[in-house]
From TrEMBL:
PANTHER family with a match to the protein in the record: ALKALINE PHOSPHATASE LIKE PROTEIN, INNER MEMBRANE PROTEIN YOHD
Organism, scientific name: Sphingomonas taxi
Cellular component terms per the entry's GO annotation: plasma membrane
Keyword presence, Protease: no
Keyword Membrane carried by entry: yes
Name this protein carries in UniProt: Membrane protein
Keywords: Membrane, Transmembrane, Transmembrane helix
Domain VTT residue range list: 23-143
InterPro entries for the chain: DedA_domain, VTT_dom
Transmembrane portions of the chain: 39-60, 123-143, 163-183
Amino acid sequence: MSIETLIAQYGLAAVFLGAGIEGETMVLAGGLFAHEGLLSLPGAMIAAATGSFVADQAFFAAGRRFRDHRWVQRAQSKPAFAKALDTLERYPIGFIFLFRFLYGLRTVSPIAIGTTHVPTRTFLWINAIAAAVWGVLFTSLGYVFGTGIAELLGRYRPHGRQWLWVALAAVVLGTLFAAFRWWRRRRQR
């Protein structure tokens, strides 16, 4: 099922769940749907912010509750987890506020923070403010650039073999991106 289909069928519930699970793409799409008049803009913003907030609180609680569980231990062995903890130690409040804006650290960060001695109340308040800012920002981006996105999608409708070229380009770009990330990780070690 596509993002558009999910939002069209489930509305704000899809934005809420998508914000917590998938992230920016679903929230941007929620803003686009608000631009098209299919969703309420304030509703999409609230759904995005609360979905992100609830998911991050759940990940934080999982990190706090299951610190010694093999699932969390496995997550701790990943480089992103170590990077999250290192940054958290240097800039605790800033990191808690900004982790959702950092690609590759969004899901692992609240788990990592949960394994530390950061008080639950501190994480809760900073997380609430950050989720509100994030939800409003990305929903607004989808809303403001909705006309451009809709025009772009409306103008470009691949026919016949063009789909093959689009798919091939996506595979090539994905492979190049994965190779670059692999090379960068090896270089950092």
